[in-house]
TrEMBL record:
InterPro entries: AcCoA_carboxyl_beta, Acetyl_CoA_COase_Trfase_b_su, ClpP/crotonase-like_dom_sf, COA_CT_N, Znf-ACC. Residues 29-292 form the CoA carboxyltransferase N-terminal domain. Pathway: Lipid metabolism; malonyl-CoA biosynthesis; malonyl-CoA from acetyl-CoA: step 1/1. NCBIfam families: accD. GO terms for cellular component: acetyl-CoA carboxylase complex. The gene is accD. Its main location: cytoplasm. Its EC number is 2.1.3.15. It is found in: Cytoplasm. It catalyses: N(6)-carboxybiotinyl-L-lysyl-[protein] + acetyl-CoA = N(6)-biotinyl-L-lysyl-[protein] + malonyl-CoA. It comes from Paenibacillus ginsengarvi. PROSITE patterns: COA_CT_NTER. Belongs to the AccD/PCCB family. This is Acetyl-coenzyme A carboxylase carboxyl transferase subunit beta. Component of the acetyl coenzyme A carboxylase (ACC) complex. Biotin carboxylase (BC) catalyzes the carboxylation of biotin on its carrier protein (BCCP) and then the CO(2) group is transferred by the transcarboxylase to acetyl-CoA to form malonyl-CoA.
Length: 292
């Protein structure tokens, strides 16, 4: 047999299956960790609260996922669900981008506010969502958070805010920046009335949000690896012409330097919040008994 004939015969036993016979893997069934690169089933990742089982990396959660993982039965009585931003500056393409963000996320803006319970304790909650326009602080975000603060004061409920943001929303200019002062003023009044405010910082939280309500909590906790600060690392390094320390602006770095009270793993977050609410309720009961 000629060598040529031999290889021709071998080919028919080594044919590659056609595209029609290949097994198709449904899109989204697997997820790759953006930190360590480990590939895992998306369902398993979801069961693990979107924390990588290999390296512990905390993937971003949208507002509704956060609510599901935090509130009892994932149930929330939502405030101001139909509030939407306008286009005060007639900023080019802003309306189209907002519309697209609404369609892709199912949200009306970058925060969901309302009330629910955690471990049976009633709370007013505001949850920011980075997937809506980078979690930017615009007029609607500031207004909804301010109204939530005022409702917490009126009902005498503890206030809980989950922050994540790229900063102020440029397309709304001064109307965006003024939300820093508005939310801070509302929190000041809330504090004067003896309200409890728990701030939970998630990755990333920068700019106007970090410079206002995110850092004004009576108790400030953060998820592992969450980066937060005013300006980003690159901007600071280019400004001061120096290399910043390893881990700069991470939750662990900030905890070490006294910028927050504790770093709390996502799987322990509900238990931690329940404990904090329980301690607050016990304290209020003792004070009432003493005065009575």
């Amino acid at each position: 047999m000629a060598i040529k004939d031999f290889f021709q015969k071998k080919r028919k036993y080594a044919t590659i299956p056609s595209e029609q016979t290949k097994r198709e893997i449904p899109e989204g069934i697997m997820s790759k960790c953006s930190s360590c690169g480990t590939i895992q089933y998306s369902k398993e990742l979801g069961k693990n609260l979107k924390v990588c089982a290999s390296c512990g990396y905390h993937n971003k959660l949208n507002a509704m996922e956060r609510i599901e993982y935090t509130l009892d039965d994932g149930r929330i009585f939502e405030y101001d669900p139909d509030m939407v931003s306008e286009d005060p500056l007639e900023f080019p393409d802003y309306v189209n981008k907002l519309t697209k963000a609404m369609e892709t996320t199912g949200l009306r803006d970058a925060v969901v506010t309302g009330e629910g319970t955690i471990g049976g304790f009633p709370v007013v909650i505001a949850v920011m969502s980075f997937d809506f326009y980078g979690g930017t602080l615009g007029s609607v975000v500031g207004e909804k958070i301010t109204r939530a603060i005022e409702t917490a004061a009126q009902k005498k409920y503890p206030l809980l805010i989950f922050s994540t943001s790229g900063g102020a929303r440029t397309q709304e200019s001064i109307l965006s920046l003024m939300q820093m002062a508005k939310t801070s003023a509302a929190l000041s009044k809330f504090d004067e009335q003896g309200g409890l405010y728990i701030s939970v910082i998630t990755d990333p939280t920068f700019g106007g949000v970090s410079a206002s309500f995110a850092m004004l909590g009576d108790i400030i906790i953060a998820e592992p690896g969450a980066r937060f600060g005013f300006a980003g690392r690159i901007v600071i390094e280019e400004t001061i012409r120096q290399k910043l320390p390893e881990g700069f602006q991470t939750a662990e770095f900030n905890e070490k330097h006294g910028q927050l009270d504790q770093v709390v793993h996502r799987k322990d977050m509900r238990a931690m919040l329940t404990k904090l609410l329980e301690l607050h309720t016990v304290k209020a009961t003792k004070e009432a008994s003493a005065n009575g």
